[in-house]
Amino acid sequence: MNTIISVKNLVKNYGGFNAVKGISFEVYEGEIFGLLGPNGAGKSTTLEIIETLREKTSGEVIVCGMSLDKEPDNIKKVIGVQLQTSGYYPGLTLVELIKLFGGLYNEEVDPAALLKLVNLTDKAKNKFKELSGGQKQRFSIATTLINKPKIIFLDEPTTGLDPQARRNLWDLIRNIRSQGTTVIITTHYMDEAEQLCDRIAIMDEGKIISLDSPDKMIDDLVSTGFERPKQVKAASLEDVFIHLTGKEMRDE
Ligand code: ADP
């Protein structure tokens, strides 16, 4: 297992407030790594520091063998970060937007290939504002891939999407990983983390309180004698929803 991100004793203070309290963790090359935790836990602060978008107070961060302190510009070249959708010029088509972002990264891009990867070939000539929620998220993920990064960061990529669109996005993320890209994802959906992530770190109040595979975490809890308060049925309401409305995408 090769380590692609190493974080040691990372601290972030906002004035007198200690938001990240000396956390350490590693992300392995080729995995889908989830960062979970309640609002205010320090997830965004941690990720934005790794993404070179925020100053740390202290600690060591190494990305692809490069020190954050010494080579932030080279780190920027090997990571893909979702841009704020407000930065998507409303009058431009998806192809034009990809060309524009490619120019910003000084990178030759093939818009058609990128749109095919995220299943948006039919929308190439559409404007961003004309896309459905799921399509917007897929396009936003496509923009993280423009500079052919080794690592992409996805911040709650499925929030607000319907169950079919969420599943479609999981397939897309798995597909990106299968092409060798390491994926770091935040989510508040535990089913998503369980399905998608190879390992997860759970953060609370600026600390990592657990880090393991979802499976191992669940087994550890069960081994303490924990049982769900009521008998779990063989299907969930989400299963009913998918069964009734079908698995295929609706937002095309
Ligand atoms: P999460 O992403 O887990 O919701 P954040 O990293 O956004 O957590 O925030 C962690 C804590 O740091 C919160 O208490 C938040 O209010 C605080 N915080 C975040 N950004 C700032 C800032 N720019 N200035 C002051 N406090 C901040």
Mean pLDDT figure: 92
Question: Helix proportion of residues, in percent?
Answer: 25-40%
What best-fitting shape do the alpha-carbon axes yield? globular
| Coarse structural class | alpha/beta
CA-atom Rg in angstroms:
19 Å
Order of helices and strands: EEEHEEHEHHHEHEHEEHH
Major β-sheet strand ordering: 6-7-8-3-9-10
The number of helical segments is 9
Estimate the strand proportion. Answer: 15-25%
Kindly summarize this structure in a few lines.
The chain has nine helices and ten strands.
Notes on the protein architecture:
With 252 residues, the protein is an alpha/beta fold. Helices cover 35% and strands 25% of the residues. It has nine helices and ten strands. The strands form two sheets. The protein has a six-stranded mixed beta sheet with strand order 6-7-8-3-9-10, sandwiched between helices. It has a four-stranded antiparallel beta sheet with strand order 2-1-4-5, covered by helices on one side. A hairpin with a 2-residue loop joins strand 4 and strand 5 (66-67). Helix 5 runs parallel beside helix 6. The longest helix has 16 residues, at 163-178. The model has no long low-confidence stretch (mean pLDDT 92). The site of adenosine-5'-diphosphate has 11 residues, from strand 2 and helix 1.
